[in-house]
Amino acid sequence: xxxxxxxxxxxxxxxxxxxxxxxxxxxxxxxxxxxxxxxxxxxxxxxxxxxxxxxxxxxxxxxxxxxxxxxxxxxxxxxxxxxxxxxxxxxxxxxxxxxxxxxxxxxxxxxxxxxxxxxxxxxxxxxxxxxxxxxxxxxxxxxxxxxxxxxxxxxxxxxxxxxxxxxxxxxxxxxxxxxxxxxxxxxxxxxxxxxxxxxxxxxxxxxxxxxxxxxxxxxxxxxxxxxxxxxxxxxxxxxxxxxxxxxxxxxxxxxxxxxxxxxxxxxxxxxxxxxxxxxxxxxx
Length: 284
Ligand code: KIV
Description:
The termini are far apart. The chain is built from 12 helices and 8 strands. The protein has 284 residues and is of the alpha/beta class. Bound molecules: 3-methyl-2-oxobutanoic acid. 3-methyl-2-oxobutanoic acid (KIV) binds at residues 24, 43, 45-47, 85, 138, 181, 183, 204, 214, 216.
């Protein structure tokens, strides 16, 4: 029996000094492959809006869209912790909305939810934790707020901003999160937050001192032709897919596909009967 990773295991990993490694995934096979290599946590991120749907931001992503992809990831039955991302407007309007929507993710098989925001969302975090829903925080760059923060800028470059990030991290821990993503933030700020917190920090573009790392699946495998500066590409999946499809197209056009091993025939006897029947009905 595989030992499922649960939210409290992330805290144990921090205590043991073991790096927590996460990746986003949105489909059954993405989750399978991530789990097979031993990834600790899978985030069904609202980044799906950009890498799956082709939106230019995460703002149009709906609760139903994330739920759909949570179901696909859950079907892979990963050992990895499954975190469902709360998309824009699924938790801002009211605490009851937040609890209902997050609860629906748990009912679909997610192990936890993630919310963007700092001190301003601690009332929502408290309500979710009270309802038995494990919450991952997300501070630093919050892509759902890019319109009010002036774009996808590096956070924590200035001392006041850095201080605000530390205060948000502490407030989220106090509210009950089991871990916090820190995105696109000056490395010293992430290091300080990591030192101050008991719960683990999971970084994306926030330097090497966090308790864990996360990247977007498409950036890791090279399916996104314009990845952010902080992602490292480990394959050229775009090129690989393109080459495979171009070869398929060529083979069909030039009569090489399907080949003799790629289709089945009826027996000679059944073929004889078939043509006999067609003739009798005047169809041949
Ligand atoms: O949606 C997402 O993929 C995320 C990661 C960038 C952490 O929130």
